[in-house]
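Trying the structure run again after the queue cleared.
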Amino acid sequence: MRRVVFNQKGGVGKSSITCNLAAISAKHGFKTLVIDLDPQGNSTHYLLGNDAKPTNTVADYFSQTLSFNLTPKKPQEFVTATPFENLSVIASDSELESIEQKLESRHKVYKLRDLLNKLDNEFDHIYIDTAPALNFYTMSALIGADRVLIPFDCDAFSRQALYNILGVIEEMREDHNENLVVEGIIVNQFQPRANLPKRIVEELQAEKQPLLPVYLNSSIKMRESHQVCKPLIYFAPSHPLTIKFIELHEHISGGIKGRNKSTTATKKTVELL
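Done. Tokens:
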């Protein structure tokens, strides 16, 4: 399954959601890959650490498509193992910005899908993190993905952006990827005691927008996990926000619990709280 986490608005938690869902997938025994298409590289830093210098990045892959090469690197050579079992990443690089215009002019927007097709047999789940923009790389991700997860923080600006995003996805479905499905809207940084977030959520529900039933609260624990470069399932496995992520993962996975004993242990931890 290929999922892209997409929102044109910044600061809604795309990288945090991508990495934490991917980490739970890996913890449950699934071979899981994160592809970081954001030049800022937040997902790359989160999973590899701030000092990591991956040899082959996603920018290297796209650069390779721009020139004829008798010995191109294999798809697996762009994959970097993280310190966490079953979890790998194709790292970002600031060079993404400098080659974007050339990739657009050469009509390389389907090249990410080609890479994903070649990696499908290697991984059970693939999560794609995107920049807060509808750019070449985001379009490549929407063309190559099966599902879209839309992070949403509860304010008026986010709500207007949400309608624009749903329109963009529908256009991509019609023009490039008829199998693309909006898997759901993830309510993030939710404040259950505040009136505005509750009202916005209720109004979106009344509109029958595809809100996922698990709402993610704000927590300083998330920032702490960023600082130590450990997703919550490894950093704070019994924290309430971690449990919310586990519930969200189980929902989008159709209740699939995993492939190894670590899942049972995680579930027991949740039940004891």
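Residues 2-272 form a domain with the Rossmann fold fold (CATH 3.40.50.300). Worth checking whether this holds up in the mutant runs.
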